[in-house]
Amino acid sequence: MSKKFTAELIGTFILVFFGVGSAVLMGGEIGMHGIAAAFGISIIAAAYGIGAISGAHLNPAVSLGFLVSGQMPLAQFISHVVAQLAGAILGALVVYLIASGRAGYDLAADGLGQNGWGPGYLGEYGLGSAFLFELVATFVFVTVILGATGPGSVPGFAGLAIGFTLMGIHLVGINVTGVSVNPARSIGPALFAGGGAIGQLWLFILAPLLGGAAAGILHGIGVTRADAS
């Protein structure tokens, strides 16, 4: 359990460091396409780096999908989530410390890659659009993960499928919510950004968990699960 805990912590740190770091430190240079690629690459790196130890969930919504589909015991789910939250907070802290070394950086004005919606946030989409995007995108993401790692999947390619799926989700939704599909990824930056990011955090916890649970239920009852050959 301790090795899995450490692997999930490191893996989620990689996700936040690559993804959030790209938005905060290089967003102006690489744009939304570059940020989307960074999030996808982070998943690929973590999947092949620590996936054999913990499954590289890096996301409470993903772990919830495995729990409700019957593929993970409750104790391991809790350990994974604690590790994921710790890794995300540590990743956000490191990004913040690096960003703070740039002349003119202001946390209140420049942010820390936190998720959001509404007036003043990227495309200024409303609450309903933000919730629907996060719910559907997380459902798709967790469905792909369960399928890519389940019966009938092609060995060795799960990391690529999952990473490119996350990249695609970001290409669709960065302008909507900044893309969470992951409560840990949202909690880490929000704790440092404070203010409105904290006030909107509930959506980036609730919607991804609902989407992940729905994907897990359908997989568990066989609707989206291939028959074992």
Report what the structure shows.
It is built from 9 helices and no strands. The two termini are 30 Å apart.
Descriptors for this entry?
229 residues; mainly alpha; Glycerol uptake facilitator protein; globular
| Biggest β-sheet description | none
Spatial gap, N to C terminus: 30 Å
Count of DSSP strands: 0
CATH homologous superfamily caption: Glycerol uptake facilitator protein
Number of helices: 9
Rg over C-alpha atoms, rounded to the nearest angstrom: 17 Å
Q: Could you tell me the strand content as a percent range?
A: under 5%
| Name of the CATH architecture | Up-down Bundle
Multimeric organization: single chain
How are the secondary structure elements laid out?
Layout: H1 2-54, H2 60-68, H3 74-99, H4 107-110, H5 127-148, H6 158-177, H7 183-193, H8 196-199, H9 201-220
Quick take:
With 229 residues, the protein is mainly α. It contains 9 helices and no strands. The radius of gyration is 17 Å and the shape is globular.
